[in-house]
User: Fold this.
Amino acid sequence: MPRRNDIHRIMIVGSGPIVIGQACEFDYSGTQACKALRGDGYEVVLINSNPATIMTDPEMANSTYVEPLTLEYAEEVIRKERPDALLSTVGGQTGLNLAVELAEAGILDKYGVELIGAKLEAIKKAEDRLLFKDAMRKVGLDVPRSVLVNNVEDGVAFAERTGYPVILRPSFTLGGSGGGIAYNLEELREILEKGLELSPVHEVLIEESVLGWKEFELEVMRDLADNAIVICSIENFDPMGVHTGDSITVAPAQTLTDREYQMMRDAALACLREIGVDTGGSNVQFAIHPDDGRMVIIEMNPRVSRSSALASKATGFPIAKIAAKLAVGYRLDEIKNDITRKTPACFEPTLDYVVVKIPRWQFEKFPGTEPVLGTQMKSVGEVMAIGRTFQQALAKGMRSLESGKSSDADELDEALIPKRLITPNPERLKYIRFAFEKGRTVDEVFEMTSIDRWFLTQVKEAVELEKELAQESLESADKRRLSQAKRAGVSDRRLARLWKCDPLAVRRKRLEMGVRAVFNRVDTCAAEFESFTPYLYSSYETECEADPSGRKKVMILGSGPNRIGQGIEFDYACCHASFALQDFGYESIMVNCNPETVSTDYDTSDRLYFEPLTLEEVLNIYDTEKPDGVIIQFGGQTPLTLALPLKRAGVPIIGTDPENIDLAEDRKLFGKLLEDLQIPTPPNGSATSMEAACEVAARIGYPVLVRPSYVLGGRAMVIAYDEDTVRRYMREAVVFSQERPVLIDRFLEDALEVDVDALSDGEDVLIAGIMEHIEEAGVHSGDSSCVLPAISIAEKELETVKEYTTKLARALNVVGLMNVQYAIKDGVVYVLEVNPRASRTVPYVSKATGVPLPKLAVGLMLGKKLKELAELAHGMSSGVLPVPQFFVKSPVFPFHKFPGVDPALGPEMRSTGEVMGVGENFGEAFAKAQLSAGAPLPDKGRIFISVNDRHKPEAVRIARQMAEFGFELVATRGTAAALAAAGIPHKRVFKVNEGRPNVVDLIKGGQAHLIIYTSAGATSFSDEQAIRRTAVFYRVPCITTMSAARAAAEAVASRRRDPIRIWSLQQIHESEPTVA
Amino acid sequence: MKKALLALEDGTVFEGKGFGASGERGGEVVFNTAITGYQEIFTDPSYAGQIVVLTNPQIGNYGANSADPEAGRPYIEGLVVRDLSPIASNWRSEETAEAFLARSGIPIASEIDTRALVRRIRIHGAMRGVLSTECDDPQKLVEKARSIPPMAGQELATKVSARERYVWEEPVRPCSPSERVPPPAPPERHVVAFDFGIKRNILRRLVHAGCRVTVVPAATRAEEVLALEPDGIFLSNGPGDPEPLEGPAAEVRKLIGKRPMFGICLGHQVLALALGGKTFKLKFGHRGANHPVLHYERNVVEITSQNHGFAVDPDSLNANEIDLTHINLNDQTLEGFRHRSHPLLCVQYHPEAAPGPHDSRYLFDDFIRLIDEWRGARA
Assistant:
């Protein structure tokens, strides 16, 4: 059954912005699918609102639409492009849901589009909890027992039969509210009564609890000929009760005999067949009772998932790519295994190593939520590590996390051991280690965690080895000892701390003794066949399989785990760096540890090292590969912190000198430079003590912006209006800044903020984009919407921005990319920050201008001049790149995952992802961006306005416009008075602290469709918080700055005026698509 | 801690830690790439005369139990692993994997760079080797390895075969309350199984499919088999080189056409020899649970469990008599054939799995169908 020739044009739906639970793994899967289908001669039409993806690069598809993933925009794409088929399974839950919506709305039928990958019926069977259970029971598979009840007595009877605890889920309540876990009869009655009351249909699902059971996942694939295979088994370190995305997971499964594993395999394949996924990949989740082996099936995803990305990286089997090929008719045995070249893809990969995935959380960004883990995913990113043993992989994984803290630097409290072990939380692994250090036994820890004793024993062995190592010293440790430590995954840094010496001294000693890292290959077959793909991981085995080439080559350091402030945008830049190196005739070598990314796909670079981004591991690779250069400016902060140590170790860093990157971070040196260049900056100073900080703040005048040096994403950054705030901050910030001083700047209120990305070869400077922020200065640039081209900056100010950018690039001798942040207030342009490296906005600017910024940057780093590369940049080598339309980038926030957190924007970045809107006017682009970001602006309804006195004149102007559009206005006392004075019709409503019904009641009752609210200072703080929280919960767009209110007004105007229209990137930039 | 050395005939010596029994054992060093199922591998009589290297680095995690062994004792000469678990963690476990092997006097070398070892075997072919926890002289061990008789030409099947005839009646039993094992079919057919080193799961599968099984020693004569009045004849898996099994092959030749026959692994090779075919030694064999085999007729791929160092040369079989039914998609070697005029089918791989996937269970039903058709025709 070869390729289908009856379809020619295939539409792929992407997954949209990065959010918790849906990250760049779907860029990886979408990119693979695009490449596979293009490579096979199909035309690909893509829709995805996320510009920071490789899949939305114009080379990846024939027509690329960075447009909202909504029914109306998707229909418009279909109407315009007339695809023959729609591939539903590579765009995550978002892509799948949109495919279902299109099918159910009759749009696919209307335009004759066939759903390929998973059919509608299969999707519904897999996604509907009850249909799924019925289907599984039908094929004889066990599922958790459950019953739907509409009275308390039936519920009690069920619980008596199955035993406690039981899980309760009221039917049809918002966000699953009213549900819970009942551990006894009393709790059951309480939750059940409440749940029945809350449920509009007076119905609650009661389910047997599988908390504490062993948790497993199988990644399975099936083709049209019914060939079905398991790609990978995954066992969760954390048992049932913690979302898989928040669990440490291990591949392959470690604690199942073959009998049990095969039972699970049979069940997974039976499930796949019964659900009816006829082509592609799925994942099936199981729970096994640890005492009697009873196995229940929990759920299945009829699509490529986060776990498939992990499984692809863990095995070397490219699930999404193969899934795409199966969807167009190929059989598994017609596709070759890329790695072995001679064996078919129809086999089951076998592993001779262990893979560990560890999630990364950022609860510290969301004060007010308790850092505990449960069934809702909270992690923002993950790392994967490969080791020859579980211990080695776990240790590598832990250091890949870059938590910024060393494992023994934390203050762990012995009294907290039971609490930290019993309730899953981000610190649990650390506390398990600590418990063993304090002499707890495996059985004791098992009682508290239900984590399998095999895993616990491994952790305990590692702790014991460290205890033994602590008895040694750098001098006393012999080769055997060093080798033992390294084989168990202990880092040089850890050894250095145990032995109180320099990590490089440990390195020198072990190299002298011949204890050096070697590299093994990920080859899908445990070395049974020769591998042709250099996909490598380090170990301390006896034989190195790296087999480096003698070509000219450059190594790229990636950005590690996704986190807020350092996400997919940096991976995008790294991937492009790799593509560019290949175009310029260099071999590209990628180093990264994030399994969700395109950069860790084995065919993105010539060579892939799946390794932690630490000095030790990077030097190991450097020693093996001896590259001609190393690129550190694309991966965000992660590689930057390694830049100087690498340079000192003699590693040739190409592009801007690390010393100059460092200079831009050094307050004193940088201040001096700005002074010399006569570029204004807000008054500032730095401090290393609380007293000094207060003194500096008093001298430069409040409000001040306080932050530690060396941060990304505004971690631990605040605006202080008074000394108390500064004092409180200094007490808390020290943890993050360690020896580095705290920086204090005068905060420019109501200033306009501008982000500039530029390229420089040290002489010429090409400005790629001058992005105007829609939020005022003070909101982190990553959390502010911004627009290209600038819409309200005076020509004279733009000239100044150009002049300063050019001067700075030359002064810092920038070779490659540079990002500068400016604030404009009262006609004065201030420099806020300079980062001589790739910024978060690089993909967005590249998409808006049609110029591949990372490629140009790589050319510059390789020694070319802007003039030589001008053909890549519309013939330009200086000036500002033109933008053919309006492009708005908007952030996406995870607040609804952290109930109780104040969603007000500030200098600490909290968005996880971004979207882009394209339009012929600013309003249109902004409206689309807001729609894509999940905060669509209304075109009719009621607007609540409450602003401080300073903003009243502006608010009145906006209100008048909205009233003309037919909106009803509601305002609180002060604003209402201003509206009354201007003769604008409105209603009054109470403030929260005035009485009821107040604005919160209004939102809860669905009576407000847009909220415009600006802060009136500390006095109204609790009021504001209540409004913002309620708005987030009920998904009502909430605007907290006047500039955003102005933008919203324009967007609303566009929604009422402009038709639904779309442009492909290829059309916008009139480029001829080339095959990737 | 005991030291363990593994010396290969090519002079390579790997050093690791010794576990299990102390001692020195020699044999052909082979590797198996299955992720699960070490206990079944230890106890598969087809591993007689072999030191087994497991590519999964974490071995022993789930311990050992009394339900999973494929024979009454382990048959491997020695075990080589990357990391051996100090504990057994599984609800069915009764002892550690180490204790299980130690009871039968089998030494284990752990902390060996098994990947380097496997790469060596892949590149240079299976080699003779000696695993020792006693001798500290690598050179001496290399010499000993060189003095071991090579696997080619070795007849081991009769050595592991049952001495006496016995009856097997136990069906497959579920390993968990959630495993759906349909009840066994009534034992309406009598099958005589030649034991060349038979695995218990083959017997369980035959019983489950509706057979009463009489297991007979490898050297049983055709007349004796027919005297048992079987409805079908089964030829089992087993160790060693098939070619020296001229005696059993001659007896089998007499039985072809007389009764429906089914052969697995060595049984498949013996059938080929009986039909005038030839076998040859593979460079390093097929041992694992992930080998893709295409069933020509159904045009579907089965993921199979394999354990063989020799293979049948398809060109040596009479194309007028034989239909090739199965082929290995990794290296295109022959995986199964059937006779055009006689009721006879056989496969090189292991449809009974244990360890391995269950994709090929249908072969037991195919055998039952052959028997029933043959009985129907005779009636």
User: Anything to note?
Assistant: Residues 1072-1076 of chain A have pLDDT under 50 and may be disordered. The longest strand of chain A covers residues 765-776. Chain A is about 35% helix and 20% strand. Residues 422 and 449 of chain A are 5 Å apart (CA to CA).
